[in-house]
């Protein structure tokens, strides 16, 4: 992977130090010829002229952080005088003034490490592959007995090209974990970078670290809907893939989940082209799942002990049980409709039976009950299609996650409240399953775009934000790794970005670069960040003592925009055709007319229930099963017998002021 | 160990005296013997306008030669002052992009001492530790100020010799269209003085070749004008060259010598014919300014560049006098 050092390199510069600008153990200055390939971000090597006590010459690696050019012009006025006030004449001067290209470099590494001394005033060379590995301290995890190197791109400054690797122990855990990527939108950097990095992780994740999968939330457009389709790669991209030893192919195993639309049969995704829609699994949840994550639906003002107590009461005493409401009614709450009937019965009971003399029912105030009712029933309306009345029709395979598989959850067209619910439940389930070691993989990378929205630095402490903080601070011990992306890093909660061991930056907005978080960068580095081309990133990683610029190839998958052009989404099909399509997915021998005859003149709710039951059961003969359950009222899924396991979200530690 | 340290270790008294460079430079041409000028372009000296920058024809390839000298008293054997000196000269050629590249370079580091007046022990140490000693008349050792003037003359003579050798070396290899511009007298070397594409540019005017009305016209020459060409004999070789004055910048408001150059070319009618064209070229060389040199008004930037090049490569230990107390900046 790493080319050996080329023999007899040519010096391209020389370290110079003055009293005003001395060489220090962390920084040095050097000059080069006016015509040079050196630029901001170039990695250079300084070869000390002398030798240490151990006998080896001191070698210092540095990265160029600033550059200066000036001539022997004492004052700009002299140029004006020389040109007699005419700028056009200034270029006519027969002699070019003496110029200098003067560079400032930050030290990446010194060998030997001790004693740490100022950089020797020696010759400067461009770094080759081996030098880059040394400079970035990649040798420790690249050449060890159990390598943990994950390629992130190519260092391409100064006309050189060398692979740059991240340490899996610091990217996936357990030493450090998480990755945060920032950049302005529209330059195909953040999503593309994550797609490439996932491909790289899948290709290079060390066997001794087990199995790995990725869960990606598609929150806008068709961004992640075509990860299994090949994209157009240039020869240069393919060459870079070869250089990084990453297969230039789309992901082999992609499972895409999308909720249904309000009609309960058409998928709410842009991947509905007839050739591809068969690979999309419906994602539908029932009352049980919603109640378990009811906290997500409550805003800050809603969260109080009374609401918590009532929700707990519903979970423990009501859901899935035969329940007497105290006003003569008996309920068995298994769906939102059942729950609504219970609430109506209680409210009627309090107003009519009790004559309006009491405001409480079983110690719960009527206002609290109304608030919880509104929140719970509201979600079934706003997210109809994701939340159904029929129990867990379709869900992720929580115990059967597969190695090197991307699970895409398309919630781009879901109500924001529903997005929060999906995110909270999926991440919570992942955490639960990883804690129990029952997920099927040892590590999961969760890719969340738009962190500005989900974990803002200011604003209320929502459940989703607390969950992201929890992953950031504790996920690495479980193998739950957050790859977060946002446009403005400064506006994301500082502990979310601060806990990311690896920081990646695409092209940045100058206003963003003016915020305090970027004060450690030189003006030149900021200027480069503000003009980064597509496909180039600045990377900070625990092993790198300075930010490094890398170039990554275009992802080997079909971009979302290209995907919808090549595979235009199909229009919503009529109810009966949608039912046919879903049944045919289960058994290609089923003829449409059979299904249409079967569901003619039947209530759509009954058909939906039968379809959900068939999807859930996946019988050997789907049509026969569908016919059977359609013949009578289809009962919602009966939960396990009491005592029901409490599957609520585990409490999160409150947000504290501890430093990350 | 340096020879200076060896001398001090042997009993010499350490001293530190470096002459004022500006004062030394001003006397560069002062002692050159000269005859009165003989007019070769017209019967009397007149002012001729030269082409402006837009009309100037600048040769595609030009080499510039300049020299540099630095000396200082470093030790005393009684009242005998022992001098450490360094002289250098270089030719830098201008390429098509206007960038200067060094073609030839010579330097000489030597000691200056009246050996016959030194004590035997220190003389032995000096002769043993220094391979290059320039002898000097010890008769003036008892008059330190005049002695130092002699040292100055000696160093200047060595520098002139170095520049002459380098000029002759350069002339021998000059390209077909290439010119050589020297900082100083062209007449030091007959070989160089006869070359059709060699110019001497003199910016110190210690020697006057004109008198009366001609001198007045020369010293009050308007900017962008030259005088008529006249013939002079200069240098120790008494070589004849053609010469004229050229004003680069207006002198009004400054002084008579402000922006005034004297140009030397080969003694040939062609020089007279080319005087205006060559003057236009030199006027075009006003830019870039040779700042921060104090003589920038009459110093061509390429010659300034050669001087800076030589200064950058000179030994550092003679650059400033070593004061006993730190000097506030």
Instruction: Give the uncertain stretches of chain B in residue-range form.
Output: none
Beta-strand share of residues of chain B: 25-35%
Q: Tell me the greatest interface.
A: A-B, 19 and 20 residues
Helix/strand-derived category of chain A reads alpha/beta
Q: Name the beta content range of chain A.
A: 15-25%
Named CATH architecture of the largest domain in chain A: 3-Layer(aba) Sandwich
Count of helical regions of chain B: 8
Shape of chain A: elongated
Indicate how many domains the architecture of chain A comprises: 4
Share of helix of chain B, binned? 25-40%
Order of helices and strands of chain B: HEHEEEEEHEHEHEHEEEEHH
Largest sheet of chain A: 10 strands, mixed
Residues in helices of chain A, as a percent range: 25-40%
Corresponding CATH superfamily of the largest domain in chain A: P-loop containing nucleotide triphosphate hydrolases
CATH topology-level name of the largest domain in chain A: Rossmann fold
Please tally the β strands of chain A and state the result.
22
Overall pLDDT of chain B: 88
Give a short account of the largest sheet of chain B. Answer: 11 strands, mixed
Task: Identify the CATH class of the largest domain in chain A.
Answer: Alpha Beta
Strand order of the largest sheet of chain A: 12-11-17-10-18-19-9-20-21-22
Can you describe what's shown?
The complex is a heterodimer of chains A (660) and B (329). By secondary structure, chain A is of the alpha/beta class. In chain A, the strands form five sheets. Chain A has a ten-stranded mixed sheet. In chain A, a hairpin with a 5-residue loop joins strand 13 and strand 14 (330-332). In chain A, helix 10 crosses helix 12 (366-382). The longest helix of chain A has 21 residues, at 416-436. Chain A is elongated, with a radius of gyration of 31 Å. Chain A starts with 12 loop residues before the first strand and ends in a 29-residue tail after the last helix. Residues 638-644 and 646-660 of chain A have low confidence and may be disordered. Chain B is elongated, with a radius of gyration of 21 Å. Chain B starts with a helix and ends in a 16-residue tail after the last helix. In chain B, the strands form two sheets. In chain B, strands 1, 2, 4, 5, 6, 7, 8, 9, 11, 12 and 13 form an eleven-stranded mixed sheet that branches. In chain B, strands 3-10 form a two-stranded antiparallel ribbon. Chain B is α+β, with helices and mostly antiparallel strands.
């Amino acid at each position: 992977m790493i080319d050996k050092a080329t023999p007899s390199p040519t010096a391209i510069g020389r370290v110079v130090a003055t009293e005003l600008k001395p060489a220090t153990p962390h920084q040095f200055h050097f000059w080069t010829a006016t015509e040079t390939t050196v630029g901001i971000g170039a990695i250079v090597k300084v070869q000390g002229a002398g030798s240490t006590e151990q006998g080896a010459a001191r070698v210092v690696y540095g990265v160029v952080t600033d550059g200066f050019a000036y001539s022997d012009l004492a004052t700009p006025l002299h140029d004006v005088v020389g040109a007699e006030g005419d700028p056009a004449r200034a270029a006519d001067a027969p002699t070019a003034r003496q110029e200098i290209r003067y560079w400032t470099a930050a030290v990446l590494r010194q060998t030997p490490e001790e004693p740490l001394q100022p950089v020797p005033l020696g010759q400067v060379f461009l770094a080759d592959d081996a030098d880059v590995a040394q400079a970035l301290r990649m040798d420790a995890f690249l050449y060890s007995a159990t390598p943990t190197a994950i390629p992130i791109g190519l260092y391409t400054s100064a006309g050189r090209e060398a692979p740059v690797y991240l340490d899996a122990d610091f990217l996936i855990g357990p030493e450090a974990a998480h990755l945060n990527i920032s950049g302005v939108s529209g330059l195909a950097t953040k999503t593309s970078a994550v797609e490439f990095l996932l491909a790289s992780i899948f290709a290079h994740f060390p066997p001794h670290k087990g199995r790995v999968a990725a869960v990606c939330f598609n929150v806008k457009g068709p961004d992640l809907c075509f990860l299994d389709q090949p994209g157009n790669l240039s020869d240069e991209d393919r060459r870079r893939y070869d250089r990084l030893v990453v297969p230039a192919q789309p992901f082999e195993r992609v499972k895409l989940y999308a909720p249904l639309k309000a009609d309960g049969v058409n998928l709410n995704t842009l991947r509905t082209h007839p050739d591809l829609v068969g690979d999309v699994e419906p994602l539908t949840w029932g009352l049980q799942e919603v109640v378990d994550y009811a906290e997500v639906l409550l805003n800050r003002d809603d969260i109080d002990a009374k609401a918590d107590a009532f929700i707990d009461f519903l979970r423990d005493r009501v859901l899935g049980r035969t329940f007497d409401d105290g006003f003569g009614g008996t309920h068995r709450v298994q769906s939102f409709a059942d729950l609504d009937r219970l609430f109506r019965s209680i409210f009627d009971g309090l107003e009519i039976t009790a004559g309006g003399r009491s405001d409480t029912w079983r110690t719960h105030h009527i206002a609290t009950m109304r608030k919880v009712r509104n929140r719970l029933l509201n979600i079934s309306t706003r997210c109809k299609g994701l939340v159904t009345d029929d129990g867990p029709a379709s869900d992720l395979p929580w115990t059967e996650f597969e190695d090197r598989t991307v699970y895409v959850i398309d919630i781009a067209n879901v109500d924001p409240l529903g997005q929060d619910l999906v995110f909270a439940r999926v991440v919570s389930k992942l955490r639960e399953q990883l804690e129990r070691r029952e997920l099927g993989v040892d590590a999961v990378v969760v890719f969340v775009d738009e962190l500005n929205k989900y974990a803002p630095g200011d604003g209320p402490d929502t459940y989703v934000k607390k969950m992201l903080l929890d992953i950031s601070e504790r996920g690495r011990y479980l193998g739950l790794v957050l790859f977060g992306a946002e446009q403005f890093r400064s506006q994301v909660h500082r502990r979310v970005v601060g806990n990311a061991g690896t920081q990646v930056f695409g092209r940045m907005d100058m206003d963003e670069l003016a915020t305090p978080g970027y004060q450690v960068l030189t003006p030149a580095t900021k200027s480069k960040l503000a003009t980064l081309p597509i496909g180039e990133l600045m990377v900070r990683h625990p092993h790198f003592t300075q930010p490094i610029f890398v170039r990554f190839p275009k992802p080997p998958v079909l971009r979302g925009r290209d995907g919808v052009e090549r595979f235009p989404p199909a229009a919503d099909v009529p109810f009966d055709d949608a039912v046919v399509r879903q049944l045919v997915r289960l058994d290609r021998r089923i003829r449409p007319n059979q299904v249409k005859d079967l569901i003619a003149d039947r209530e759509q709710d009954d058909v939906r229930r039968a379809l959900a039951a068939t999807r859930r059961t996946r019988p050997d003969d789907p049509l026969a099963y569908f016919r059977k359950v359609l013949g009578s009222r289809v009962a919602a899924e009966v939960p396990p017998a009491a005592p029901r396991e409490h599957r609520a979200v585990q409490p999160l530690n409150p947000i504290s002021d501890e430093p990350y | 160990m340096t020879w200076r340290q060896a001398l001090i270790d042997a009993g010499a008294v350490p001293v530190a005296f470096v002459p004022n460079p500006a004062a030394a430079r001003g006397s560069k041409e002062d002692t050159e013997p000269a005859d009165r000028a003989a007019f070769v372009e017209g019967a009397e000296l007149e002012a001729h306008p030269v082409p402006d920058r837009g009309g100037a024809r600048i040769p595609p390839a030009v080499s510039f030669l300049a020299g540099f000298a630095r000396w200082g008293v470093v030790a005393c054997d009684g009242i005998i002052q022992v001098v450490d000196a360094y002289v250098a000269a270089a030719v830098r050629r201008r390429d098509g992009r206007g960038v200067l590249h060094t073609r030839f370079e010579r330097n000489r580091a030597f000691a200056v001492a009246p050996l016959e007046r030194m004590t035997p022990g220190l003389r032995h140490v000096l002769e043993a530790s220094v391979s290059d000693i320039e002898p000097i008349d010890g008769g003036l050792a008892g008059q330190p100020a005049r002695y130092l003037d002699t040292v100055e003359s000696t160093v200047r003579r060595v520098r002139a010799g170095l520049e002459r050798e380098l000029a002759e070396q350069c002339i021998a290899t000059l390209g077909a269209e290439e010119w050589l511009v020297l900082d100083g007298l062209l007449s030091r070397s007959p070989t160089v003085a006869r070359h059709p594409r060699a110019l001497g540019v003199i910016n110190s005017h210690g020697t006057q070749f004109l008198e009366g009305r001609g001198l007045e016209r020369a010293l009050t020459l308007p900017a962008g004008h030259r005088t008529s060409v006249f013939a002079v004999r200069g240098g120790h070789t008494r070589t004849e060259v053609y010469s004229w004055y050229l004003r680069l910048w207006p002198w009004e408001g400054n002084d008579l010598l402000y922006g005034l150059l004297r140009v030397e070319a080969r003694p040939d009618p062609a020089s007279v014919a080319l005087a205006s064209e060559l003057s236009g070229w030199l006027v075009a060389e006003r830019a870039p300014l040779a700042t921060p040199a104090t003589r920038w008004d009459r110093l061509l930037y390429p010659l300034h560049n050669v001087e800076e090049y030589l200064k950058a490569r000179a030994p550092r230990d003679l650059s400033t006098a070593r004061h006993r107390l730190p000097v506030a900046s």
